[in-house]
Each structure stands twice: as C-alpha cells, then as structure tokens.
C-alpha cells in the first residue's frame, strides 16, 4: 500500500498541472444566434403627419419641435415607433416595430444615444429585444449593446452592429441592424 504522503503529493502535483494548463489562452466567444433586420425612421417635419414614425419631443431653446436643431441637432430628443423589415424596402411587410427614443448629445459632431426595443408579434418571432448605447452616426459601422429580451429572446444578450443603410436629409433614415446573441437561454 502506498503511503498517504506520496498520495497527497501526487494530488497536489495533479492540481497544479491541471490549473496551469494553457495559462494565457482566452476563451473564444461565438454567437449562439444571428439575426438581421432593417428599421425605417420617418421623422415628423410639420408636413408629413400621415407617414411620420417618429417625432421630436424635446428641443434646445434655439430649436423647435418640427425641425431638427442646428449645431449637429444637439439637444433634440425624439421618440419613435418604426417598422422593422427583413429587407431594406420601406414598403415590405413589417415583422415588428422598433420603439424607443434617441437624443443628440454632442455639439461638435453627429452623435446620438439610443434606447429602444424591437417588438415582435408574428408567426416567426414573439417577444422583445432591448438595445442601449451610444451611436457615433458618422462612423460607418458601430456597435450597441443588446441588454436582454422577452419571449423567444428571453434573457438573450449580445451586440448589435448598426449601419446607416440610407438617409434622405433630416426626414428619413434606414438602419441595418445585425444582431449577434452571445447568451441564449
């Protein structure tokens, strides 16, 4: 029979061997789900009430509630209820709604802060996906956080890469939203 001391030394040696295996390697994360949607924002400008999907609800002293303020729209706050589509055609059937707000928060460049949800109630998806983050609008591709969800997206978290797909002055823009979930329940 082997002595208890040699057995203890063997266990300690095994512990250090296992705990030091690959000390500098980082875990590689892969998305558990990937979705792509487009959302279309038509801001109310005083003349397009029938088509508008968003409106300015707060403006700086030098601005008003029908036209975005000068100086990079600084101080404007908008709420929206935009259609979400699977392609970039505004007239495609919506698969959900993008509901939330954004405000322009920088005086020397176009930057916004976003907080919104994708709301789905269709045969394909049910539930919500919640987003939050800064949007440096002049950057071609930018990331915002996916902070959770409900229904089919319960407790999902990840990153959404957004890109301005199209815009028409200060009235219309379309965002391509590439969602990568890294936590799926």
TrEMBL record:
Gene Ontology BP term (one): phenylpropanoid biosynthetic process
Pfam families: Dirigent
CC per GO annotation: apoplast
Signal peptide span: 1-21
Subcellular location: Secreted, Extracellular space, Apoplast
Sorted UniProt keywords: Apoplast, Secreted, Signal
InterPro entries documented for this protein: Allene_oxi_cyc_Dirigent, Dirigent
Domain of life according to the entry: Eukaryota
Function: Dirigent proteins impart stereoselectivity on the phenoxy radical-coupling reaction, yielding optically active lignans from two molecules of coniferyl alcohol in the biosynthesis of lignans, flavonolignans, and alkaloids and thus plays a central role in plant secondary metabolism.
Family: Belongs to the plant dirigent protein family.
Assembly: Homodimer.
Name of this protein: Dirigent protein
């Amino acid at each position: 029979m082997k002595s208890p001391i040699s057995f203890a030394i063997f266990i300690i040696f095994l512990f250090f061997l296992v705990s030091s295996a690959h000390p500098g390697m980082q875990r590689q994360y892969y998305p558990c789900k990937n979705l792509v949607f487009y959302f279309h924002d038509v801001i109310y400008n005083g003349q397009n009430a029938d088509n508008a999907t968003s409106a300015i609800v707060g403006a700086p002293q030098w601005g008003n509630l029908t036209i975005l303020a000068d100086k990079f729209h600084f101080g404007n706050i908008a709420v929206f209820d935009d259609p979400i589509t699977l392609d970039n055609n505004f007239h495609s059937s919506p698969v959900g709604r993008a509901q939330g707000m954004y405000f322009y928060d920088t005086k020397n460049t176009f930057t916004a802060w976003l907080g919104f949800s994708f709301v789905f109630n269709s045969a394909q998806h049910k539930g919500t996906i919640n987003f939050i983050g800064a949007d440096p609008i002049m950057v071609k591709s930018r990331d915002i956080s996916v902070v959770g969800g409900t229904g089919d997206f319960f407790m999902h978290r990840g990153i959404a890469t957004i890109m301005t797909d199209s815009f028409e002055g200060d009235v219309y823009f379309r965002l391509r939203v590439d969602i990568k979930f890294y936590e799926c329940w």
